Amino acid sequence: METNQLVNSFEREQNEIPKFYSKKAILGFSIFFSSIFGGILLIQNLKEIGMKKEAKTVLNTSIFLTVLPFLVAWLMEKDVSTYTFLANLIGGLVLSEFYFGLYIPKEQIFESKKIWKPLLISLIITIPLLASAIYFA
């Protein structure tokens, strides 16, 4: 979808300003949780503006970027934690800078969504996984 078409589609919707998760939120969730968490925020942004095909591309990329450190660690016979932070940082930058910029034009005005609900969900998922990894390690 071209930039002008995207902007015009928003103008047609009674000049409503869409609510998006910001680039910083996507980057932060990617770094502190994983690329899949940041990807889900970006996917919700894309679904907000009807870009379902693009959302699937972001989902596939997020899954790949989440699995990548495990593959590298397995191939290099190293501990996965060595690569996790770097992979999360790279994944967050790909999602927040490349895909966000590719699909959401710079001139697009949007209201930032609050991150509390996704943060709570992310913590509910991550804390038990982290606790079991520590307990069973």
UniProtKB/TrEMBL annotation:
- Transmembrane portions of the chain: 25-46, 58-76, 82-103, 115-136
- What is this protein's record name? Uncharacterized protein
Top-level taxon of the source organism: Bacteria
Q: Which keywords, in A-to-Z order, does the entry hold?
A: Membrane, Transmembrane, Transmembrane helix
